TrEMBL record:
Its EC number is 2.7.13.3. The chain crosses the membrane at residues 34-53, 198-217. It comes from the Bacteria. One of its GO terms (molecular function) is phosphorelay sensor kinase activity. This is histidine kinase. It catalyses: ATP + protein L-histidine = ADP + protein N-phospho-L-histidine. Residues 368-579 form the Histidine kinase domain. Residues 232-277 form the PAS domain. The keyword Coiled coil does not apply. GO terms for biological process: regulation of DNA-templated transcription. The lineage of its organism: Bacteria, Bacteria division TA06.
Length: 584
């Protein structure tokens, strides 16, 4: 069987119609015969086109048959030389020079797998060629390295009585093919000349002119359609890019086909990193342990859920996911569109609001209770003090009275803390150095924590940090936080306090970090550590961090906590750099 492929470029000619023909067309149009003219013109064009095509095809087949015959003749001539000449490349090159014509470009010996084992062209060695029909003659049209059209003839070796072969040659050439390349440029040159003559002889100029008119209308139509589609695509693209929600589309194969700018921000990825990639690998989104892509594309379910997603920078985000299925063939899902909203900030604000409500409510209750308890305590302390100073009380009873006085003082201290927590204080703003404040605190705490072997490390990444704030209250907040770190270290450990410049709510701020290598905090307790009276220590009141949080919040700042059980805790305090007037 012969296989070949021919590529012919047709020319387009445009002509002008005479004025008389234009007038006739106008008359025909005025008589509503435009459809008849179009049909007759189309039939005429088809008939002449068919005749022209038939002639061209006949000439083409004839020229290709000449090329095949020439190639086969050369193949048979080379084969008659015998294997002792063919398997020697130097001799094969000399044979090629004997048969060298302008139309021959190469001679190869190819094994049954299509790998070139011997060639007159060194660059073709070990290349792979296609052998579609084993044991038969194959014809292929291809382009060589110089972009010339070549007819490749692949013929198996024939071991008949007429083929001289020794044993080694038989073993080497037994399953081999002879491949010859015939340059078709000369044939195509002749073919183009014949084509031009046929076109002229059969008045193809008129046909192409009429077709050209039709093509102009069609081209105009296509231009309008393409312009409309392009404008719609640009509009849709701009709409997606300006949306405040992330939009992602995946096809049936779960490949990401669309991702807008907001999605890049939410997932912290680049468009080139995820487009045409498996969505399960680059953006794994799961609902209760099951992939949303599987739920949508395989089970046909819509997803409207809030999920947690961790970025490549280990930032935890809360996302609101809504999916819609794209209609496909036979009722199956043709893809899926995913709408994504980052609600992390909204969730944090909601938690802060709920916490503030709880703090306000607890503060009112604590304040009422504190006032109710303080009055009886004052009476108890006064009476106990009176009895302690009385001469009628022996020493044993005085020791008991000392215990009562000590416990009353402890309760009064607790009441004072509750009142400090519940009563809003007016800030006494001044400008002071954070470095000096921290150094004074560390010096004081070193003296009070001698029973533990704690190493303090101070890091001033941003020295000479002066801020406007209430010095005493900031000192109290830092004291409470550092005391918590001391209490979290069993016996021996390290506390690192660093001071840096940062940004909080798009505003310049001072960041104070207190990091310890203590016991850490359970994940379940992290959301409650700023709640009043919440403590995991037997002797703790649970007000230290609540008071610290209130103080920093009054300065329009915030406190964040990161902790891992058994490894330690890091508390970060953000205090905005504001003027005295802005804080007040």
């Amino acid at each position: 069987m012969i296989n070949y492929y021919l590529e012919i470029n047709s020319g387009v000619f445009k002509g002008r119609e005479p004025q008389e023909e234009k007038m006739d067309y106008k008359k025909l149009l005025s008589k509503n015969n435009v459809y008849i003219v179009l049909i007759l013109t189309l039939l005429f064009a088809l008939i002449l086109g068919y005749i022209s095509y038939y002639e061209l095809q006949r000439e083409k087949d004839y020229l290709l048959e000449l090329a095949r015959s020439e190639g086969l003749n050369i193949a048979f001539s080379i084969q008659t030389l015998g294997s002792e000449f063919i398997i020697n490349r130097d001799i094969l090159i000399e044979v090629l020079s004997l048969f060298q014509k302008e139309g021959i470009t190469f001679i190869d010996i190819v094994d049954r797998n299509g790998v070139v084992r011997l060639s007159t062209d060194e660059q073709r060695m070990n290349r792979s060629v296609e052998i579609q029909f084993s044991g038969r003659i194959n014809y292929y049209e291809l382009y060589d390295q110089e972009n010339r059209r070549v007819l490749q003839i692949i013929k198996p070796f024939d071991f008949s009585d007429h083929f001289s072969s020794d044993l080694f040659g038989f073993l080497f050439l037994n399953d081999k093919y002879l491949s010859i390349g015939i340059n078709l440029e000369g044939y195509y040159l002749r073919y183009n000349q014949i084509k031009q003559r046929v076109i002229i002889n059969y008045l193809v100029i008129l046909i192409i002119s009429l077709l050209g008119v039709y093509m102009v209308f069609r081209l105009g139509e296509n231009i309008i359609v393409k312009r409309t589609l392009r404008e719609m695509r640009d509009y849709t693209s701009k709409l997606l890019e300006t949306m405040d929600s992330g939009v992602i589309s995946v096809n049936q194969q779960n490949m990401i086909k669309t991702i807008n700018r907001k999605s890049e921000e939410i997932f912290e990825v680049k468009r080139d990193e995820v487009l045409n990639k498996d969505a399960e690998e680059v953006l794994p989104l799961k609902v209760r342990g099951k992939s949303i892509y599987e739920l949508g594309l395989k089970e046909g379910k819509k997803v409207e859920e809030e999920i947690e997603f961790c970025t490549k920078d280990h930032i935890q985000k809360i996302l609101e996911i809504n999916t819609s299925l794209l209609a496909g063939e036979q009722g199956q899902a043709g893809g899926m569109v995913i709408l994504v909203r980052d609600i992390s900030r909204m969730k944090r604000l909601s938690e802060e609001m709920n916490r503030n409500k709880r703090l306000t409510y607890l503060g009112k209750i604590a304040s009422s209770l504190a006032h109710e308890i303080r009055n009886p305590l004052s009476s108890i302390r006064g009476l106990t003090q009176f009895l302690f100073q009385s001469d009628s009380i022996n020493e044993e009873r005085k020791e008991d009275l000392k215990i009562i006085l000590k416990e009353v003082d402890r309760l009064n201290q607790l009441i004072n803390e509750v009142l400090d927590f519940s009563r809003p204080k007016k800030l006494d703003i001044s400008c002071f150095s954070m470095e000096e404040l921290i150094e004074d605190l560390v010096h004081l705490l070193k003296l009070e924590s001698k029973e533990k072997e704690i190493v303090y490390e101070l890091l001033w990444e941003s020295p000479n940090e002066f801020i406007y704030a209430d010095k005493d209250q900031v000192r109290q907040a830092l004291l409470n936080i550092i005391l918590n770190s001391i209490q979290a270290i069993p016996q021996k450990g390290k506390i690192v306090i660093s001071l840096t410049s940062a940004y909080y709510k798009e505003q310049e701020a001072v960041q104070i970090s207190v990091k310890d290598n203590g016991v850490g905090i359970d994940e379940a307790d992290l959301s409650h550590i700023f709640d009043p009276f919440f403590t995991t220590r037997a002797k703790g009141t649970g007000l230290g961090l609540s008071i610290a949080y209130n103080i920093i919040e009054m300065h329009k700042g915030t406190i964040t906590v990161e902790s891992e059980k058994g490894k330690g805790t890091e508390v970060k305090i953000f205090i905005p750099r504001e003027s005295k007037e802005e804080i007040e």
